[in-house]
Specification:
Elements: H1 4-18, E1 23-28, E2 49-55, E3 58-63, E4 66-71, E5 77-81, E6 91-97, E7 102-106, E8 113-117, H2 141-148, H3 155-159, H4 170-180, H5 193-212, E9 253-257, E10 260-264
Antiparallel strand pairs: 1-6, 2-3, 3-4, 4-8, 5-7, 6-7, 9-10
The protein binds a DNA duplex (16 and 16 nucleotides) through residues 1-3, 6, 32-34, 57, 71-75, 90, 107-112, 126, 150-153, 157, 160-162, 169-172, 216, 218-221, 238, 258-261.
DNA sequence: AAAGACACCTGTCCGC
DNA sequence: TGCGGACAGGTGTCTT
């Protein structure tokens, strides 16, 4: 479900009601996530939340004595609910707060994660090798061009690699490549610096626009208040196989790259 | 080192 | 209506 804009939307929603709050209890109903939810996370109970940040698609809830690291996987979502609200089938973890709200993680497929880390968070093995944030200055055409030299993989799987740049998932990869006029299957190492300049700009644009719209709701994404995102109506190629290209009216094509559906216009993208 | 397949899960949708 | 199979917004790990 969530790509960077959806995770950012979630973070912005929960941050104001989490920061400064003491955690009163952590209830784990289903510890079997991508990795087992560690019992040591109970150490977070009684501590006060200092910050809520996002790194790539990871959500970092920092306390004085450690960090709760969360990932929403393919189907995860976080809601702020009242304690009286009965947990549903896939409500796996609750973080109860002193202000009488509960941060509730729902994740039907359980590809998400809830971890606990007491060392400096930037040293966490899941974070240490991540590429730059696409919305920050370290991400630009130079970065993409330099890393791509000698690489034969398709540019779409290249930009979806978190070690290259974080947060570009399957929807926005197709959207950005359409906006840049680049075919998703083109070899990353054979793309000019000039085209990477355009690509780095449109990656940033498409992510920022999606954040402004509250993310993309295809089936079930909702923000922390239960509201859907509105970027789905802005999608130009994703999920539009055989429909007319918005620019040239030729049918949009679908191919599979890295086992993921990929959409492009054979006329507008080369 | 790089690229591809595979794994982890459940829900939904489509065709028969 | 039921059933099998394909597919879904992610990414670490294993195999070539």
């Amino acid at each position: 479900m969530p790509e960077l804009p959806e995770v950012e939307t979630t973070c912005r929603g929960i941050r104001p009601r989490l920061v400064g709050q003491k955690i009163t209890a952590i209830i784990v109903r289903q510890p079997r996530m991508r990795w087992p939810v560690p019992t040591a996370i109970q150490a977070a109970s009684g501590q006060t939340i200092e910050q809520v940040e996002r790194r790539g698609k990871y959500i970092l809830i920092s306390l004085a004595g450690g960090t709760i690291l969360m990932h929403l996987g393919m189907s995860g979502s976080l809601r702020l609910v009242n304690p009286e609200q009965e947990p549903g089938k896939h409500d796996h973890v609750d973080i109860a707060l002193k202000n009488n709200l509960v941060l509730r993680l729902n994740d039907p497929r359980r590809f998400g994660a809830v971890l606990w880390w007491t060392d400096p968070i930037e040293k966490h093995p899941l974070l240490i090798k991540l590429g730059p944030e696409p919305l920050e200055d370290a991400f630009d055409d130079q970065h993409l061009w330099r890393l791509s030299r000698g690489r034969k993989q398709a540019v779409k799987t290249f930009i979806m690699n978190g070690h290259v740049v974080v947060g570009v998932g399957n929807i926005y990869a197709s959207e950005a490549l359409f906006r840049a006029g680049i075919r998703p299957q083109r070899q990353a190492g054979r793309i000019s610096k000039q085209r990477y300049q355009r690509l780095s700009i449109v990656i940033r644009e498409v992510l920022q626009e999606a954040i402004a719209q509250g993310g993309t709701t295809l089936q079930d994404f909702t923000n922390s208040d239960g509201q859907p995102g509105y970027f789905a109506q802005e999608l130009l190629v994703y999920g539009r196989e055989n429909q007319a290209c918005v620019s040239c009216s030729k049918p949009i094509k679908m191919i599979v790259l890295g086992q993921r559906a990929s959409f492009y216009c054979p006329q507008c993208q080369s």
